[in-house]
Amino acid sequence: MNFLKRSVLYLTRKKGRTALMIALLFLMSCLAFLGISFKESAEGQADALRKSLATGFMLEANTENELYHKRIEYENGGGSIIYNGPNVTDEMIEKILSIDGIKDYFIHMSDLAWADLKLRPGAWAEAEADDEETIAYLKKMNAFSISEEELMVSRKQTMLYPCRNGEMHQNFRTGALTIAEGRNIAEGDCQKAVISEWLAENNGLSVGDTFTIETKEGIFQQSDEPMNTWGEPIRLEIVGIFHANFSQQSSEFTYEDCYVENIMYIDLDTHARLEENQTNITLDLGDLQGYNRVEFFVDDPGELDNLMQQVEHWDELDLENLKLTIDSSAYGASVRPYQRIRIFAMALLAVGFGGIGVILYLLMKLWVQGRQKEAGILLAVGLKKREMFGQMATECLLVSAVALVLALVLSEPMLDGCANVIERIHAPKADKGAYETAIDNYKLVVTKTSSDEVVLGHNLSMATVFMTVLFVWGVSICSVYLSFGEIRHMEPRKLLQSM
C-alpha cells in the first residue's frame, strides 16, 4: 500500500481529527483571502489617491516677512501695507519644470472685480454709510471713505480665480467643488467663466449665457467716484456651473467676496485683461514681478522629498524669502481609512499565518506523538522515514486542498459581506462635514478634513488565489516537517518502547 492510500485511509478513519484540521485550514484560507484581497485593494486605492492628491509641493513667498513690507498711500487719504519682496518668476518656473520628475504647475492667483449679478448677500449688504461697525472694519483695512456709492461697489464685488486648467485648482482636485453643468476652464479659453449653482439659479443663467465684470475704481483705492470703471468692461461666457460639496455657514462678518456662492473661476486671458484695466492705479508699487504662490506637480509623489531637495539646493535658483512646503492635507484625509484597512488586512494575515500556523503546528505535534506506535511498526516492517513523512505531508495537503476549495467557493459572498461592513465602518460620518471653511487674508479657504466614501474591490484575483494556496500549503508542510522531527531522530525500537 503506497503512502497516498494510507493517507486517505487514515483521514477517513480519523474523522474528528480530519474535520478539525479542515476547519483550521479553512479559517486560515479565509483570513488569507480577506487579508491579501483587502491589502491589495487598499494599496491600490491609496496609490490612486496619492497620484491625484499628494501630487507635489508649493513654492511661495514669505509675505509675513516685515523686511519686505511697504506702505502705500492713497491719493485721497489712507493707505495699506503690501508685500514688495521676491516672488516666483516665470524663469524660475521654467527651470523647475526642467527637473526630471516634475510634470506641471499651477499658479495660485486671485482677482477682484465688480459683477452685474445678484450676489449672495453678505456683511456689505447689511452695512450702511456712517455705520459704526462698518467704520471700524474699514479702519482696520486702512480705509476711511464709506459713502453709499462705495458700499454699492462692495456689495457687488467678488473674487475671481484665474486658471490655466480649472481641474488643477485645489478646490476641484480635493472634490470640494465639482462641475454640475458644462465644463471647467480649459487651456486656451478667452473670456470664459465657471460660476456657482446659486449664482446661476438666482440670476436666471445657464451654460452659454453671458454676464459682465468691471474694474471699479472703488475696489482698489479711495476715490470721489468709486463707481468709475477703469478700462473696458469684460463680457464673460459661462462654460460651466459648479456645485459646492460643503455648506458654508453665514456670518455677520462674512463679506460678499468670501462666500463660495459668489466666487468665480476665469481663464488667464480674462486675468490679463483685468490686470490691464488696473494700469490706472497711481500707486508706487515698486518693481513687482512674479507670483506669490506656485504649486508644482510630480510624476511620483514617492520622490517628492528628493525633488524638493533638488530645488532647494539648486544654485541657479535664488530662493531668497521663498519657502518650499508640501500640501498633503487633502491626501492625508482621504487616504487615512485605506491606511487603517491595510493595517487591518495585515493583522488578518498575521492571525491567519501566524496564530493559526502555531495552533496547527501544536496539533500536528500532538498527533504525531500519538502516532509513534504506528510509526514504529511501519519502520519495523521496512518503511522508510521519508515515506512516512510523505504520508503525513500528503494527509495535510489533502486536507488543505479541501479547505481551500471550500474557502474559494464561499469567497465571493464572504468578500462582499466583509467589504460592505468595512465600507460602512469607514464611511464619512453624517454629522461631520468633509470640508472646513475659513477666511484667511480676506479669502475663502476650503480644507478637506475627512475621506470620501471608501470603495474596496470585492473580487479575488488569480494572484491572490495563488499566493493563498502557496502560503497555506507552505504553512502545512512546515508544520508537518517540524512535528516529524522527533520521529525522524528515533530508532524503530525506541519508538515502540516509548508507547
What number of domains?
A: 2
Judged by helices, strands and strand pairing, the structural class is alpha+beta
Largest sheet: 6 strands, mixed, barrel
Number of strands: 15
First-last Cα distance: 25 Å
Radius of gyration: 35 Å
What percent of residues adopt helix (DSSP H or I)?
A: 40-55%
> What percent strand?
15-25%
| Shape annotation | elongated
- The strand line-up of the biggest sheet is 5-6-11-8-10-9
Low-confidence stretches: none
Overall average residue pLDDT: 81
Count of alpha and pi helical runs: 18
Structure report:
This protein has 499 residues and is an alpha+beta fold. Helices cover 47% and strands 19% of the residues. It has two domains: 3-48 and 334-497, no CATH class; 55-329, no CATH class. The protein is built from 18 helices and 15 strands. A six-stranded mixed barrel has the order 5-6-11-8-10-9. It has a four-stranded antiparallel sheet with strand order 4-12-1-13, with helices on one face. The longest helix is centred in the last third of the chain and has 41 residues, at 329-369. It is elongated.
List the SSEs and their pairings.
Blueprint (H helix, E strand, L loop, with lengths): L2 H11 L1 H38 L3 E6 L7 E5 L5 E5 L6 H8 L4 E6 L3 E5 L7 H4 L5 H9 L7 H8 L1 E7 L6 H4 L3 E6 L9 E5 H6 L7 E7 H4 L8 E16 L19 E4 H10 L15 E6 L5 H9 L9 E5 L2 H41 L2 H9 L4 H25 L1 H15 L9 E6 L2 E6 L13 H22 L1 H4 L3 H6 L2
Parallel strand pairs: 6-11, 8-10
Antiparallel strand pairs: 1-12, 1-13, 2-3, 4-12, 5-6, 5-9, 7-10, 8-11, 9-10, 14-15
